[in-house]
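Re: the request from the purification team.
They wanted to know what the chain is likely to look like in 3D before they choose a buffer screen. I agreed to run a prediction and write the result into the notebook, where they can find it.
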Amino acid sequence: MQQVALQWDINGLIAGVDEAGRGPLAGPVVAAAVILDDLHPIKGLADSKKLTERQREQLFDEIRAKALCFSVAQASVQEIDALNILQATLLAMRRAVDGLRLAPKLVLVDGNRLPVLPMRAEAIVKGDALVAAISAASILAKVTRDRWCQEVDTLHPAYGFAQHKGYGTTLHLAALREHGACPLHRTSFRPVTEVLQGVRP
């Protein structure tokens, strides 16, 4: 996907921020913040959802090797259920920015909502397709969460997390009906709540 250059009247480092895992019924929401190095450009950056798994994995390693700095953070299932998914996502984003080794002058966030940050920030709708640093952040967040799903699949094999990545697929809903919810499920999400209440999803 072609990137477009955005001109900002600002001097200093610019960080891109994106998340993965807002929609699934289980697991944390993961956010990443990335400050790219203009002297070491990365080819092929795009919205992580538009890339194949192999492309994401390759870019994941290249981003980590070439970026000036990056940070990956998350909000837990318990925080999602306590705060709601939007506030938990903003919390994960703030943690990712806080975790950067270098302090950005400007933070560009994918979407239309911003976390509370101590520096200037801009929300960019479809930013993961428009801004290279946001694309890089989307890839780090997506790969990190997908790897988490692969790991927990061995702990809870009945649910098929490695296949559906926690989303409410037919396979996942069937597993919920048969086995009930596990500690990784978001109890505030309707399909999980219905299972806990004995209602057919």
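For the purification team: Residues 1-9 have pLDDT under 50 and may be disordered.
Please add any questions underneath this entry.
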